[in-house]
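2024-03-11 09:14:02 INFO queue: dequeued item Dipeptide epimerase, len=367
2024-03-11 09:14:02 INFO validating residues
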Amino acid sequence: MKITAIRFAKLEVPLITPFKTAMRTVQNITDLVVIIETDKGVLGYGSAPSTPIITGDTHGSICYAINNVIGPHIIGMDIEDLNAICHKIQHAIVANSSAKAALEIAIYDLWAKRFDAPLYKMLGGGKPILSTDVTISVDHIEKMLADANLAISQGFEILKIKIGTDIENDIERIYSIHQDVAKRATLRLDVNQGWTAKQTVYAMQKLENIGVELELIEQPVKSNDIKGLRYISERITTPVMADESAFSPLQVIDLIRSGAADIINIKLMKCAGLSQAIKIADLAELHDIPCMIGCMLEGSIGVAAAAHLAAAKASSISLIDLDGPALGQYDPVVGGVDFNLSNITLGQGAGLGIERINDLQELTWPF
Ligand SMILES: C[C@H](N)C(=O)N[C@@H](CCC(=O)O)C(=O)O
Ligand SMILES: [Mg+2]
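2024-03-11 09:14:37 INFO prediction written
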């Protein structure tokens, strides 16, 4: 089965409630869909959101990189040559992790379809059922408490609390949410780079000393502040997870060797796709470092690929933050992975199992 063409489309889904972090506020899930055509008429689907302040990638840059730079290297290749195709994708251009991730998702979808098996089985098998946390956006305390209680009433057992806008307000937010819901849910924090290392130690020691128990604290400091992450890890008892500091497998090796993080958040859009995510999961497992599988604010094509990976790499990926599709008002993707609040169920269709995508807006590049 040979790759013959690559085309693009846009998929937009309004959110149930605005998604707010220390870095950005978003109202819709907007994905660029990458569709790979083959000589057998089989299609492969991938997708990527635009996250310039996290990855540096926009939908324009993703289309350019795929259409003008990476695509010509893989057109004509046989889908059975998975490793050779991924090698071309990874080495055709530096950076551009979202473009590489979207392409690799579509390639792995086709590869599993070629062997008529669900992707997670091609990646080694596993349990096709996962449970995700849910994001509680940063907001005023009453709104965060209401959102946390609603999420618990919907069956979510783990809440990912977004903070990082103002240190004293953040301490108040964490304390109030902990007081209200800690007996009913596990709490994770995500600061999205909003604090300094000293502020983090101050806030966390204060919270730890008054008995606030948190599962982990994610990316408290700027992405390039590896010394800061280490400074924090040495001074607090709550485990520290690297997110925006952990893009590539090489960065993860450095983080682990320098003792800067206790947990690694793997996202396909950061690490440049499934081939690299597998490397990170394997090398973290070798070092006894647990991983989270995360997602951007993105929809169910890209997140389905992450779910298949998590199912197959359960020995390394023990924490799941794949709530993107559940935050949307509906899922336009029919077939494949079912995202129902905290419950993620992988289908048994070949590849990602996608049968149809509603509301797809075809794009012609350049647009
Ligand atoms: C959606 C997921 N729960 C999440 O919080 N992901 C990111 C932020 C994604 C974005 O801004 O698009 C994270 O920082 O973990
Ligand atoms: Mg994060």
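2024-03-11 09:14:37 INFO annotate: The CA atoms of residues 63 and 365 lie 7 Å apart.
2024-03-11 09:14:38 INFO item closed
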